[in-house]
Known about the structure:
- The protein has about 450 residues and is mostly helical.
- The protein has helices at about 10-35, 40, 45-55, 65-75, 80-85, 85-110, 115, 120-145, 150-155, 160-170, 175-190, 195-210, 225-240, 275, 280-285, 290-320, 325-340, 350-360, 365-375, 390-405, 410, 415-430, 435-460, and strands at about 60-65, 260, 265, 350.
- The strands form 2 sheets. Strands 1-4 form a two-stranded antiparallel sheet.
- Helix 22 (about 415-430) runs antiparallel to helix 23.
Amino acid sequence: MEAPSFNPISDIVSGAIMAATSVPQLIAYAETVGYAGYRGLSTAGPPLLAWGFATGSPWMNAGVTSLTAVMAKTDLGGEAYAAQYGEEAYVELVAAYSLYVGVASAVMALVGFGKLAQKAPTAVKTGFKWGCELGVLSSALPNGLYAFGSKLKSNVATSVFGDIVKTVKGVVPGATGVSGVCNILYAVTNPQTWDVVAALLFISCTLFVMKGKAYLPKSLPPGSEVVLATAAATVFSVFYGYEGGVVGEIPTLDGDAGLSLGPIKIPIEVMDIKGLLNVPIAERCFGGSMVKLFITASIFSAINFLSIVGIASGFESDNNVSWSAPRELIAQGVSNIAAGAVGSAPVSGSMSRSLVSRMTGATSKLACIITALLWIYMMPYMSVMSPTPKAALSAVIVSAVVKNVVMPKKLLALKGNDFIVGVGTAVTTAITSPTLGFGAGMVMYIVISAVAGKDSKKKVA
């Protein structure tokens, strides 16, 4: 399969399919970030629209992913912040962080980081990916196995796992990931605490999303199994009177709100950019240090870009679609600035959506622009998702990562020093945070490589 020839009709069809099949993910990843699921719907369009105009790839899609959601929540201490200051303040915090990530991406592109990122060690990337996927799993389990996620957290707090969390955080204050690891351990070892209805809904939806494609008509587009599982769970919620957590009310945009470009009205709510720059993100999340904030945002941007490198490199090897690292890093920056402007979490390249775009016949970036416009203009009709159980949305998330978490083939395939670096990176990422884990992995790689190099020189001598 070679690079496609432009066909606007194919792009419109592909864009429409992508818009429909991605809705459950938008809601689910918003829940992962730590705020109301409807915000994932209301803020997804503008970042993808900006990405569509800036990228050079015909298939690459961008948005909030499981990785960016977990990283943002971890870096900002999402749960504690929302509990202390409220959801609206947390949304402003996340939006401000997206702006900083966007600016960091643009600056890094200008200084040539794009090409350097392509040389990140495979062992570090592999271990980091597994650690983050475990974090994604831990974020989804509370609303999957329990009617309300807060029940799991309260149970863990009063158990031996709660003591472990306190001990680890006492030694390493930045070890926010240990809470998620202990949530998983408690849930797996205490099935008697699960909510029966929520757990059955969660497990059945997860199995259907993972296995259902093999039993569906081949004519259905990729991602149909996600739509069907979510739709079935929503119908069940309405007719059964499901009493667990649901998406909830989706507010409608004020008729006078939005952007006006001449006669064209764009129904998006833009945040006060000046206000976002005054959000006390450094004071409340980074020990009052702007330097620490910029370093963390830069590391976030670098890690984000690794996803784009992987997607673009795959398309280049499979389909001979050339790409420019500096351009795609700038596209990441522009889309994150747009994300901040509308209150979205940081965005990055989405492997699953990019592959669906290719599979459904997209021929240019017009396809993702169509997807973005449909998300923006169809928002008033998304109230149909209000009764959707959070257990079903958790299933969408878990189905994407559970297989690799349980059987990490690429991690286990590493040999020698690479295996040590990979496992070390994975464990550190899972227990501490993605930012600390990636940094520790790079340090481990450099130190072990240096030691191994000295040993080999001694042998030669």
